[in-house]
Amino acid sequence: MCMRSSVAVLLLAACGAWAQEAAFDSRTSLKIDFPKDSPVAVVSADWDGGESRVSARGSAMVLDLRTSLMLRNSGSQRIRGVSLLVLAQEVSPGGRASVTVPSLDVGPGDTFPVRIDLRLLRPLLVGGGPMVQVSLDGVLYSDLSFFGPNRLNSRRTMTVWEMEARRDRLHFKSVLTTQGADALQKTVLRSLARLDERPRLDVRVSRGRSTN
Fold first, then answer.
1. Long-range Cβ contacts of 176-184 (<8 Å, 24+ apart)
2. What is the model's pLDDT at position 55?
3. Which candidate, 138, 151, 117, 104, places its Cα nearest to that of 24?
4. Residue 69 near residue 113, CB atoms below 8 Å
5. 48, 49, 65, 122: most buried, per Cβ within 10 A?
6. Within a 13 Å sphere around the CA of 148, how many CA atoms are in the beta-carbon half?
7. Where are the alpha helices (H) located in 66-211, listed in sequence order?
8. How far apart are CA 124 and CA 19, in angstroms?
9. CA dist., res. 189 & res. 20, Å (int)
10. How much helix, strand and coil, in percent to the nearest 5, is found in the chain?
């Protein structure tokens, strides 16, 4: 049998094996890999949620990840934002995404949840090991200093969001002080209405903002 025929047979066999949507075994297929000096630690993971699924689409696996992590601030500074890199395949389109959680106020020793709600693609014919790896791309502190490899330029993104949030908090505080609670409520509602009128991108939201 020629090489091309052998590859075709393998692809057909793989597609047949994944033809039906199946549950994603997070314990064996999802790896969480934070650096040893990470300022955030994994307290628990929703391994048994049963919501994640894997199915076939042509020569690729479609991974619908529906899980959550509970993280702890193991450092000495207050955390304002966290960004995670979720990787199924480095090169192929759709093989990686990110989950970014801004507007946090997490003190040392405190815990906070991060929801992962993403769809990734992974070639069928790849090596063994976990299907998906979750790593830390960055942590933004209250003094706007940063920890992490910043592969996704998350430092700039989270810093911009934090500065916007601080500006908004000062504005709302000023309205409350000078005009009272009723005026604050109206101002907040107008702000939310303006946000709803903006063009929306096809992104998935995780307790704030998630990009992929």
1. none
2. 80
3. 117
4. yes
5. 65
6. 28
7. 154-179, 181-197
8. 12
9. 45
10. 30, 35, 35
For residue 192, pLDDT over 70 is answered with yes
CB atoms < 10 A from the CB of 68, how many? 16
Query: Rounded to the nearest 5°, which phi and psi values hold at 96?
Result: -145, 155
**H-assigned helices in the chain:** 3-17, 26-29, 154-179, 181-197
Report d(CA 138, CA 147) in Å as an integer: 5
Q: Looking at the DSSP assignment, which residues form a beta bridge with residue 85?
A: 98, 135
| End-to-end Cα separation, the chain, in angstroms | 41
Mean pLDDT score across all residues of the chain: 80
Of 107, 65, 99, 66, give the one whose Cα is nearest residue 82: 99
Residue-wise pLDDT for 23-75, tens only, equals 666 677 888 999 999 999 999 987 665 678 878 777 778 888 888 899 999 99
Which two structure tokens, joined as six digits, stand for 144?
């706007």
What is the predicted pLDDT for the residue at 40? 97
